[in-house]
Amino acid sequence: MAPRFVRSSLLAALVALTPACGGEVRPALDLLTDSCAGTQPLAGVTHLRFRVTGPGLHPPRERVSTVEWAEADVPAVPPGSARVLEVRAYVGAPERGGRLVSLGRTAPFDVTDGQAPTVRVFLRRLGEFVPVNLASEPRTCALPVEARAAHTATTLPDGRIWLTGGYRPEANGARPVSRTSEVFNPADGTFSPGPDVGARAFHTASPLPDGRVLLVGGAESFAPVSLQPTARLVDLATGAVGELTPGVARYQQAAAVDAAGHVLLVGGRAADGGGVFTAEAFDSASGRFVEVAGEVRRVDATLVALGDGKTLFIAGGADATGPVPEVLSVGFDGTDLQRLMNVPPRLLVPRVGAAVAVLGRPDESPRPLLLGGFDGVEPTQDARAVGASEVLEDVMTVRDGPALMPRSNPCAVSLPDGRVVVLGGRGTYTGTTTSVPWVELITPHAGAQPTVLGLPLMPQPRAWHTCSALPDGSVLVVGGVDDSTGEIRANTEALVVMPPPRD
Predict the structure, then answer these.
(1) Through-space distance between the first and last CA atoms of the chain, rounded to whole angstroms
(2) Degrees (nearest 5) of the Cα angle 431, 434, 439?
(3) d(CA 351, CA 196)
(4) In terms of Cα–Cα distance, which of 143, 128, 126 is closest to 91?
(5) Which tens digit of pLDDT belongs to each residue from 65-120?
């Protein structure tokens, strides 16, 4: 029986009646509507909305059909770049108040005159954490090659996620450190082995403007603690791996990249647990580490580059006496740190072990948001997890952000639409610290305080995990450790969650 179509607007009706012309083409859609676990994306669904957005498409091209959709329901679009096809699934007709339950998007794609691209959409249940599924066998879950915690996840220019190093949490408390890496491809849901990176955990991975990634430092062993003395400069596109030697060995440091390709490294710890206050930089143009004049006397701090690519903020962390409230704004020319304010602004709540993520789209004056942390150095000595967040407004101003669930070392990720998702971390309970499952979605608003929406809990609490924004707007969560029950358990599944849309 031919499918029955419901049009959502006059524009959609006109598009339906008008053949593609003037170079317009209809993308060939591969819509994956199965999941390997959890609620199936089409459970209870009666209608689908197909929507194409991109530069010059105002309003978006949009059509609505019943769940029995046909190829003709995908809107035809004119040539252009950065097109995104979105599929929304409803229980009930959307124009009659139907409930949105599932969502999927393509990665941005280009349309050339007369060429119809083939695009793929993973339809995902909103807000539900499910294991990653394969495109080739959607009912089959994909597992990472290795269980990891305190690893890094780096988004590559083509949208793939590169996972490096970390340690394997074991029930007896052992933490063997990994020297492996692997690549997650969101286009097909697969994990594949990557190059050897040298044993390292609690290291930094910095994506450079030319697509290469710099790995620095980390612990290569925990029994006893010994530090990884090398760095790796890796080009995943060509497979080239270079080994370098930084001037200082450290782990748990902070790193940020400026627009010129300089990587600034500050803070961190030595093998004996003491602070490393020497700043160091890597110059991607020359491929060398260079000394940096001046010290940054704090550990467990955050470091973030602003949108201008020139200004760096150093916020949070502790020196030898405790948490440091001053937010340092520095300019960096590759060798020297230049303080931009003689009297820096101060955090309202000094904190150690916070996370930072940029809140807001490019057209919304995006600002770094500092989240969580401990209000002292040692949780065993009455340090408490912080629930307040703070917006690093500019070099002179810090203002209150929204209240969040109190935890330290959460994973925070900026979505393409300007929102921030905060997942997991470590909470404090009667003097003890355990991993937590909390998830929150933060939305910016022009001239008003950001709002917070609590999302469903992760199936397992996680700390020392990673979270990455995928090209379709979903979030990939990999690895970590769950010690919430008093037993140490590795988080072996890679989970994906689709937040509700912003509009």
Answers:
(1) 34
(2) 125
(3) 35
(4) 126
(5) 999 999 999 999 999 999 999 999 999 999 999 999 999 999 999 998 778 899 99
| Res 73: pLDDT | 96
Closest CA to 234 of 212, 216, 255: 212
Q: Please name which of 216, 206, 148 lies closest in space to residue 177, comparing C-alpha atoms.
A: 148
The tokens describing 32, both together, are 């994956």
Answer whether residue 139 shows pLDDT above 50.
Answer: yes
Positive or negative, the CA dihedral 245, 246, 249, 252 is negative
- Kindly give the pairing relationship between strand 118-122 and strand 28-32: parallel
Q: pLDDT value at position 28?
A: 95
Residues 6+ apart with CB under 8 A from 325: 346, 347, 350
pLDDT exceeds 70 at position 7: no
Structural tokens at position 312: 């760096």
Distance CA 417, CA 361 (A): 6
The average confidence (pLDDT) of the chain is 92
Structural domains of the chain sorted by starting position, each given as residue range(s) with its CATH number in brackets: 10-125 (no CATH), 130-497 (2.130.10.80)
Distance CA 270, CA 150 (A): 17
| Rounded-to-5 percentages of helix, strand, coil across the chain | 5, 45, 50
In the block, residue with structure tokens 């770049």: 81
Q: Which residue has the tokens 């590559």?
A: 156
pLDDT confidence bin for 380, thresholds 50/70/90: low
Dihedral over Cα of 168, 477, 436, 299: its sign? positive
User: What pLDDT, on a 0 to 100 scale, did the predictor assign at position 340?
Assistant: 80
- CB of 162 within 8 A of CB of 183? yes
The CA distances from residue 297 to 255, 318, 322, 356, in Å, are: 15, 8, 11, 19
Residues 6+ apart with CB under 8 A from 350: 316, 322, 323, 324, 325, 375
pLDDT at 257 over 50: yes
Task: Check: CB of residue 385 under 8 Å from CB of residue 372.
Answer: yes
Query: Environment class of residue 408 by beta-carbon count within 10 Å: exposed (0-12), middle (13-18) or buried (19+)?
Result: buried
Backbone angles phi, psi at 77, to 5 degrees: -135, 155
Instruction: Say yes or no to pLDDT of 15 above 70.
Output: no
* 3 pLDDT tier (thresholds 50, 70, 90): very low
Question: Residue 22: its pLDDT value, please?
Answer: 55
Q: How many CA atoms lie within 13 A of 254 on its CB side?
A: 28
